[in-house]
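Hypothesis: this fold can be encoded by more than one sequence.
Test: take the structure tokens below, design a sequence, compare later.
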């Protein structure tokens, strides 16, 4: 049975006081929920949030990591550092990182390897721009991102990954992929994995939807056969909304 996951990517939001208030609200509300809950704050707050969530089933992730183990890379944060402060997941290749910081598939493959080598689970993001969908290149783009970012992994390492499909045209826009569009791409990604490895591997990997998922549309999206949860942006910044999404299972 694949993990059902609801992960909240806070992006560059919240100060420490606000972050701790939010996780305390989530900690109280998280009672016997079906999905695995992950909060993904900014780097400075990870350790404080890990400590606050001690004895809670809520997991903690980071929004990025370096391609390097250590060294003279001012401003970078390594996977081993994230592991040492209690992070368990790392978002790799979010569309904002690809767009604003020109991250490419080759470098993202290195980040995935860094995560796995340090006992962290990468949440590898893929997805197409609006013009790529409108030109009917969306499958080609996503296939390239998956192939170049993940398919260097062994079968055992591949099983330890999570994938998030995020149609870039639906992130922060209020526009959501239709259920048919979401299911079609999730099924396509799973078929790529089956073709590269085998069906058992494909069926074991959680594929999340990320793109303006909210309390109103989460239930329909999460009911799709190949959608295993969500990578949630803006709706993860309010505990009521985030838990409503988690309860959509």
């Amino acid at each position: 049975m694949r993990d059902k996951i609801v992960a909240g990517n806070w992006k560059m939001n919240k100060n420490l006081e606000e972050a701790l208030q939010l996780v305390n609200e989530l900690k109280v509300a998280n009672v016997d929920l079906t999905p695995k809950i992950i909060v993904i704050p900014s780097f400075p707050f990870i350790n404080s949030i890990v400590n606050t969530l001690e004895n809670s089933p809520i997991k903690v992730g980071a929004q990025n990591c370096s391609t390097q183990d250590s060294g003279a890379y001012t401003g970078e944060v390594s996977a081993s550092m994230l592991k040492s402060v209690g992070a368990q997941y790392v978002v790799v290749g979010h569309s904002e990182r690809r767009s604003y910081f020109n991250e490419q598939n080759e470098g993202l493959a290195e980040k995935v390897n860094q995560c796995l080598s340090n006992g962290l689970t990468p949440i590898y993001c893929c997805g197409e721009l609006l013009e790529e969908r409108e030109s009917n290149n969306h499958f080609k783009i996503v296939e390239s991102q998956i192939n170049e970012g993940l398919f260097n992994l062994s079968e055992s390492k591949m099983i330890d990954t999570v994938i998030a499909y995020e149609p870039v045209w639906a992130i922060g826009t209020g526009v959501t992929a239709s259920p048919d569009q979401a299911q079609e791409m999730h099924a396509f990604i799973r078929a790529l994995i089956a073709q590269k490895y085998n069906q058992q591997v494909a069926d074991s990997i959680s594929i999340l939807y990320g793109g303006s998922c909210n309390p109103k549309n989460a239930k329909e999206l999460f009911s799709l056969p190949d959608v295993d949860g969500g990578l949630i942006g803006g709706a993860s910044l309010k505990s009521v909304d985030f838990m409503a999404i988690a309860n959509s299972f």
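The chain has a mean pLDDT of 95. Residues 68 and 79 are 8 Å apart (CA to CA).
Hypothesis status: open.
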